[in-house]
């Protein structure tokens, strides 16, 4: 048995609980296939990432390093240049290394490079984000490492330059696993056909929630306003409004429209169903803090006595456990809806990109309960909430019937990685 050294790139856990759910479930799956593997995770904003303060995640040894490739200006550009040259030197014998810190040696010594960021390989977040992710992938190929894109949503690519660049970079991968079929279509359209390509499922479907006692402890701390009766959860987002409300051009006005739409839905829920409404934050970055959005919504709610805002910084497993307590969930964050559906909670997904449509809509058969942000308004959201509430028992049964197959697809990600490495490395 060979001890593997695995580098994970393009994942931003800690402040992004969706990425944390991806990372933690991937670590568990890969550690099952490669016992005692050494994991190095390359990310950014380390000072905001609680995970780097821990040497182990779910009992697995993990080392965190600052992201290697970052397209930017001034110091970022200089640092990226030095890292690129230093990695290039690792291809040649000798010990001349001009920039040997920050996990460069660990990356150069790795047996496998895995990219897993959910949907970072897209135009949705701008070219600089996309090109930074591609640079990290190319670093792996520069050092002649096997590179795997693990349970990703990829594309679509509309810009001609991005299409060409994506074709070149993605064709260099050894294996691409995708979490929905729309991504496979996107890859075919731009001519990506060299790697092994398989449609599997998001790895976070395998994430185990925190234990019952821990969930009760958190709810006692955060939710003294929770009363007997139903509980309906919300995941909100500071960026989703940018993609909707097409009749409005100003981003601040779009955001205000989103806030008011959610607040009116909350008023409807508390008035009609006498339910506790709980806001579960999935991103807590200072620039994009779901807790701030929830507080902005709270200002417009008529009766806040039945509303609970989770204010603490909790692990992805803990948030999944909280979401699992809900009788209905409305999610603007992808992995909040993966958490809810995998726990059998009837879910309304607010979609700004293909991932919600492909995963929640098609794979889980919940197309009826996916609302595109471009079509969101108060009446549509309230109507869909009422419909899902009335149909909640049927939805639970449907999700339960599908989930075993979906989780088996999730498990295939690590199995496919093992297969690739078995062919490349004799003796595994």
Automatic annotation (TrEMBL):
<dbReference type="InterPro" id="IPR007345">
    <property type="entry name" value="Polysacch_pyruvyl_Trfase"/>
</dbReference>
<protein>
    <recommendedName>
        <fullName>Polysaccharide pyruvyl transferase domain-containing protein</fullName>
    </recommendedName>
</protein>
<feature type="domain" description="Polysaccharide pyruvyl transferase">
    <location>
        <begin position="16"/>
        <end position="353"/>
    </location>
</feature>
<dbReference type="Pfam" id="PF04230">
    <property type="entry name" value="PS_pyruv_trans"/>
</dbReference>
């Amino acid at each position: 048995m060979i001890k593997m050294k695995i580098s994970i790139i393009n994942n931003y856990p800690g402040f992004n609980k969706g990425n944390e759910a991806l990372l933690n479930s991937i670590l568990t799956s890969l550690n099952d296939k490669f016992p005692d593997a050494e994991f190095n995770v390359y990310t950014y904003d380390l000072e905001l990432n609680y995970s780097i303060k821990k040497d182990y995640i779910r009992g697995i040894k993990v080392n965190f390093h600052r992201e290697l490739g970052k397209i930017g200006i001034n110091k970022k550009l200089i640092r990226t240049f030095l890292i690129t040259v230093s990695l290039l030197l690792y291809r040649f014998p000798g010990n001349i290394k001009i920039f040997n810190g920050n996990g460069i040696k660990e990356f150069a010594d790795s047996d496998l490079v895995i990219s897993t960021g959910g949907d970072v390989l897209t135009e949705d977040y701008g070219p600089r984000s996309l090109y930074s992710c591609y640079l990290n992938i190319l670093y792996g190929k520069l050092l002649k490492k096997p590179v795997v894109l693990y349970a990703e949503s990829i594309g679509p690519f509309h810009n001609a330059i991005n299409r060409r660049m994506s074709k070149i970079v993605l064709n260099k991968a050894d294996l691409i696993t995708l979490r929905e079929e729309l991504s496979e279509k996107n890859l075919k359209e731009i001519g990506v056909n060299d790697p092994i390509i398989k449609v599997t499922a998001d790895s976070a479907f395998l994430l185990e929630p925190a234990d019952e006692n821990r969930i009760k402890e958190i709810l006692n701390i955060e939710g003294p306003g929770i009363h007997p009766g139903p509980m309906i959860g919300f995941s909100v987002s500071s960026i989703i409004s940018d993609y909707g409300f097409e009749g409005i051009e100003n981003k601040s006005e779009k955001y205000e429209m989103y806030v008011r739409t959610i607040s009116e839905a909350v008023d409807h829920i508390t008035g009609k169903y006498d339910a506790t409404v709980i806001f579960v934050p999935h991103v807590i970055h200072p620039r994009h803090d779901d807790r701030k959005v929830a507080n902005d919504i709270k200002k417009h709610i008529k009766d806040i006595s039945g509303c609970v805002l989770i204010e603490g910084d909790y692990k992805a497993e803990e948030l999944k456990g909280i979401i699992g307590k809900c009788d209905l969930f409305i999610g603007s964050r992808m992995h909040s809806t993966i958490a809810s559906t995998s726990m059998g909670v009837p879910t309304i997904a607010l979609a700004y990109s293909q991932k919600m449509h492909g995963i929640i809509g098609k794979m889980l058969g919940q197309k009826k309960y996916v609302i595109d942000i471009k079509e969101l308004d108060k009446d549509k959201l309230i109507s869909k909430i009422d419909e899902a509430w009335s149909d909640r028992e049927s939805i639970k049964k449907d999700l339960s019937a599908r989930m075993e197959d979906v989780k088996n697809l999730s498990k295939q990600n690590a199995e496919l990685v093992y297969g690739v490495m078995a062919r490349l490395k004799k003796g595994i």
